Amino acid sequence: MSELTDRLTYSFFIPKPIIHDEEQWYFTNNLLSDISKVQDCLAGAGIQKGDRVLVSIPNSYKFICLYLAIIDYGAVVVPINPEMPEYELMAFLHRSRVVSGFIGSHHSSILLKEQAQNFALKSFFSVEEEAILKNKYDYSGSEWLEKDISGKIINRVPYETFENSLAVLLYTSGTTGKPKAVGLTHGQILAAIENIITSHELSAKDITYCFLPLFHINAQVVAVLSTLLSGGKIVIAAKFSASKFWNVINEHNVTWVSAVPTVISILLNSSRPSHISERLRFIRSASSQLSMVIARRFEQSFGIPLIQSYGMTEAASQICVNPLPPGKRVLGSVGRPAGLQLKVVDPNGEQCLPNKIGEIAIQGKNVIHHYIEADNQNDFQHGWFHTGDLGYVDKDGYVFIVGRIKEMINRGGEKISPYEVEEVIRQLPAIKEAAVIGMPNPLYGEMVVAYIVSRSSQGNSDDVTKMVMDHCEKKLSSYKCPAEVYLVEEIPVGPTGKIQRSKLKEISTETYHNQTSNRISGLFK
Does residue 181 lie within any of the structural domains? Predict the structure, then answer.
């Protein structure tokens, strides 16, 4: 048995409440019993060591139970968005080569359709009461896992797992090409957990509130596994709710939260509660760049430390994090490397001096050595994983992210970080959100284009966009200023709050802006 599963199992032998979901607490004995039942289902379906098992259900106690049972069994858990559309689902099933799965109602109905009978799964289990699957295993609703898988012979095989055994298979977003398959081992996940527990000073006294999607690495490792292994408790929600957030914090004496900049912005624009539990130690921000303006306003308004961090799937979540109070936190920085090695390199692979921008490269026990599936393995060079992120390290060792290599805007040979322009635009109180991309231009190669969301629907849209143009001209070098500014109703973001720049580029400018925006063009500088 790997050290990860060994330590997790050991931590469940102490009777106590551990996971809160849908108005009730589940105890460690509930979790151990349900894990055993899931593993009976896996054995009954003939799942072998290393087989890939899909999990497609919303955030819940059930999800955590399935996740733990699969990796403890020796199989590989493959979590996906339970709302993934049919076309994407079918493509994913064939690409990922999963052999079985635990499926919610949305995907169950898709797989039962006549035209979907050629899907790759040999069997699947329904996790919804209303889905009765003919000739398939079934457990359901309030009786979840209580039904007998009648007539099936269960030969439980005690598969042994090792540190290099695959535990989780995830796919990158694929914004710069085909999705890459990231396989994380038991050892890599455990190393990430230990880094998180140390940097966040987690203990059995901690209670976290988990609402980020569990089909992403952040919630899986940062919120769930790190909390379980440190002996803490989890309050889980299907999704983020601004109206419920502070009530949950106060009712359950939550001590820390893993969030994303979108959530922080929403909370900042909501009314401050009359009381905030003193037990809330910090809110952690990850998954995308946190605006300094928003961070400063949030801390001033709520008096809660915001701990900015940096991570990615290829590192089993965390790479850098700012120190907790009373340590020095640097707004705008993602903190210092946590439990791994990090360097910034130039295009020739040479390490950059402090404050010099280059590509961030990492290596460590939590970092993968290769992709399970990808067009190429060029991101791995001489033992280092090249992240594709551009940034620099200051003289004190704090890391700053300035953009992605393929997101950088090349205007006439001048390289422009979209993050820098967005940060300047967000300084305006009238602007709720901003996204900046590069668009093709016959004269300069690319031009800077900004999309903005106003805090108020009142006022002339031309006045708002002109205000943005004027502000940028005062704050930025002329080549960094947006050539065009679009006022839109919303900016597309992914499940973890990252701006989907590729979607902005794909949308037809004419069609999109005729429906949702007004436009002002500036002179090319």
Answer: no
